[in-house]
Backbone:
């Protein structure tokens, strides 16, 4: 059917045609039909051309945005999502180091140039420096520890979000909020935020999951640039500088998810955590109370497989978007199920990612932490002291837990592993452009308006003394000064991304 415009044009042309005597009407009708046919052919050419272009664009987009980078190396990615890949590789690919292999999953062979990372790792050129979204959580009495942790982790290239649950007094939350708001460096860079409306959180309950998802959603809503989400508590502390951390991660594919996980769950854990049911009062009450255990039990789920592991993770932005936006219904269904599971923060994220066809083969089976346990393990890990120092170093982990507030080992870590970080100062990095002895730039003169009184041990609350801080002058935020910590962390990454270890421990 021709458009109205085509009819008008044809009518206009036919009316202006010259006529002859005799077969005037018949000739006019023939010419009119010829004009209609020409117009139809003209529009048909446009339609065919548009169709060809559309098909070409569709094919191009399918080739470029088709299978994900990890799917390409997994020809057996069908059937059960819990089966690890057991395919073979050529001798050349099997000899690749962990970082080199994982990097080639993302970087195409057309990338020009080469780079040798820490420890002589041959790989693609360094991509844009990654950004970490740190979500730091604490409860009553953790204010000063959270300040110290924030300073030890700070880097202007990252994003930071702090949350103190509602069990802490309002005065403590206000003190931490003021510290974040008026700290000269944080104020200038603008990459540290505090959740003012705190959540009520029950230990081992689903409200811990809700708070973690809350942190993810805030980072996503701010539309800030970040690549990985890391959740830490006030009991955690870094063992390497952020320069070390970012330097090594610059050669790691952004789609990887670092979380300790396993589908092999002991019978007693299945009985206590999967079959039994609890109710978290923090979901519907304004005051904190313990979990309520229900007498009834339920069977093991058969719609998905349960996985468990550490509650401390480094998750990719892509997986965080999957959890929050939920274009697949699994994150929501699993969240509803785990609302009645005890210690659910140690199973929810692991179960979702290992039952997701899109993400299960992006898992790296490590939580990037050094943790000491009793033998046999108890509910809580051991509190770290100086006797664990050598083990922490040998672990090559970038983080450790758990630390008591007054632990002197933290001072040792500051002095020996974090470039001699001074009390109430951030860790000196390549981005610090001030003079070590004179400081300059961001000088806090009204310390009474900046922080609260210092604790006897942490001493991180008083934020007014910046006159000798080289980081008070902010230089290039992507300038790095990696050191020995980068070499240690690189060894860990090499080990966990080694092909046999990497694939053999994914969701099994």
Residues:
């Amino acid at each position: 059917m021709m458009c109205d415009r085509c009819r008008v044009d044809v009518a206009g042309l036919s009316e202006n045609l010259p006529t002859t005597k005799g077969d005037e009407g018949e000739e006019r009708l023939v010419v009119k039909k010829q004009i209609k046919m020409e117009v139809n052919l003209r529009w048909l050419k446009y339609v065919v051309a548009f169709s060809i272009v559309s098909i070409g664009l569709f094919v191009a987009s399918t080739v470029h945005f088709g299978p994900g980078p990890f799917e390409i190396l997994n020809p057996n990615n069908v059937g059960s999502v819990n089966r690890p890949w057991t395919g073979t590789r050529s001798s050349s690919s099997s000899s690749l180091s962990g970082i080199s292999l994982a990097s080639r999953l993302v970087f195409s062979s057309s990338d020009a140039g080469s780079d040798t990372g820490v420890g002589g790792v041959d790989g693609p050129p360094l991509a844009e420096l990654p950004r970490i979204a740190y979500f730091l959580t604490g409860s009553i009495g953790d204010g000063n520890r959270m300040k110290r942790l924030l300073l030890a982790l700070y880097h202007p290239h990252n994003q930071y979000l702090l949350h103190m649950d509602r069990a802490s007094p309002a005065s403590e939350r206000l003190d931490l909020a003021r510290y974040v708001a008026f700290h000269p460096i944080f104020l200038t860079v603008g990459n540290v935020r505090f959740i003012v409306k705190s959540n009520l959180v029950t230990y081992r309950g689903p409200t811990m999951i809700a708070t973690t998802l809350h942190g993810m959603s805030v980072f996503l809503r701010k539309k800030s640039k970040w690549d990985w989400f890391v959740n830490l508590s006030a009991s955690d502390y870094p063992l390497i500088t952020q320069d070390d951390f970012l330097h090594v991660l610059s050669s790691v594919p952004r789609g990887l998810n670092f979380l300790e996980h396993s589908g092999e769950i002991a019978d007693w854990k299945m009985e206590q955590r999967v079959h039994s049911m609890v109710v978290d009062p923090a979901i519907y009450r304004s005051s904190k109370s313990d979990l309520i255990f229900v007498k009834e039990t339920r069977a093991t789920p058969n719609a998905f497989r349960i996985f468990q592991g550490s509650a401390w993770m480094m998750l990719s932005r892509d997986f965080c978007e999957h959890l929050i936006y939920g274009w697949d219904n699994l994150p929501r269904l699993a969240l509803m199920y785990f609302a009645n599971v005890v210690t659910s923060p140690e199973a929810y994220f692991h179960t979702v990612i290992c039952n997701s066809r899109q993400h299960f083969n992006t898992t790296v089976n490590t939580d990037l932490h050094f943790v000491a346990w009793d033998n046999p393990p108890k509910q809580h890990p051991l509190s770290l002291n100086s006797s664990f120092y050598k083990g922490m170093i040998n672990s090559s982990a970038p983080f450790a837990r758990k630390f008591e507030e007054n632990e002197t080992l933290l001072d040792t870590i500051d002095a020996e592993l974090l470039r001699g970080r001074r009390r109430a100062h951030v860790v000196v990095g390549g981005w610090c452009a001030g003079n070590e002895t004179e400081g300059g730039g961001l000088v806090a003169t009204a310390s009474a308006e900046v922080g609260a009184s210092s604790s006897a041990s942490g001493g991180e609350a008083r934020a007014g003394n910046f006159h000798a801080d080289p980081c008070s002058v902010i230089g290039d935020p992507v300038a790095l000064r990696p050191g020995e910590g980068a070499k240690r962390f690189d060894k860990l990454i090499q080990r966990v991304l080694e092909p046999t270890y990497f694939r053999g421990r994914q969701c099994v």
Summary: The chain is about 35% helix and 10% strand. The longest strand covers residues 132-138. Residues 303 and 355 are 10 Å apart (CA to CA). Residues 132-266+306-504 form a domain with the Spore Coat Polysaccharide Biosynthesis Protein SpsA; Chain A fold (CATH 3.90.550).
